[in-house]
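Below is how a single chain appears once it has passed through the pipeline. First comes the sequence as given, then the structure the pipeline wrote out for it. We keep one example in the README because the format questions we get most often are answered faster by looking than by reading.
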Amino acid sequence: MRPWPWPEVPPLALIVDDQDPNLRLLGRVLTDAGFDVMPAATGEQALLRLAAAVPDVILLDVHMPGMSGFEVLSRIRCSPAWVHVPVIFLTATHERDLLRRAFDAGADDYVTKPFVADELLARVATHAELGRLRARMRELDVPALRPATHGALPGAKRVLTSPEAAAPATT
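Resulting structure:
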């Protein structure tokens, strides 16, 4: 079963993880599902791979020596060539603060390690397909969500986070 609607061109996934067993396992799971895979063991290597070929989706480890996943994500989101590529953070933590920080930094999703292969494939395939659809919309000059909106819909009202925020202003 192919998890995307373009059978003639397999989606390309960049996998960034400093642990070789993780790279091999993730690579095998994705290639078995029909993805092409570009592995990178460091943040620096990931940026070099991105310069060579823009993937449909990026799986990015949060905690790596040297350049962290957050620093790599920051560079991705600052580059016009890569800003639209969906990024899924890989993490062994369930800490809410870290996950919120990841979304605030521009991550599109996250998968916890150890991962469930079916869940990983569903998330990766969904984001790869959405990334391709957004790229096609840009080619056709169709207005789309901007990366800075991450999760906000055009015309959406601001999110109220406290009862005080919901109270009308008095003058």
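Confidence is low (pLDDT under 50) at residues 145-171.

See the next section for the split statistics.
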